[in-house]
What we know:
Elements: E1 10-13, E2 18-21, E3 26-27, E4 30-38, E5 56-59, E6 62-68, E7 80-89, E8 96-98
Antiparallel strand pairs: 1-2, 2-3, 4-7, 5-6, 5-8
Amino acid sequence: MDSFNQARVFRYNPSSNTMTDGDGDPEESGILEIYVHHARNIHNICIYDNQDVYAKFSLTYNPDETHSTRIINGGGKNPEFNEKLVIKVTQLDAVLKLQ
């Protein structure tokens, strides 16, 4: 039960732009909420049908960790997503990439 009474300590290291807890482990510095409404005028690569589409997001400091919307079957050139994605951010200078 003692672990519930311990205060958590967070430290910011300006040279690395990351947040760490008292043990030096990375901690999230914030949460990025993305609401994907729709996409417009996507190049349709399917000749005879509307393409299946999705949106994929990543942060530049960790490009291998991606967050995607659901696939819109037959979404074509103008798909409607209306979906919220939540990304934990650990670097303050992170840049969002969309594919």
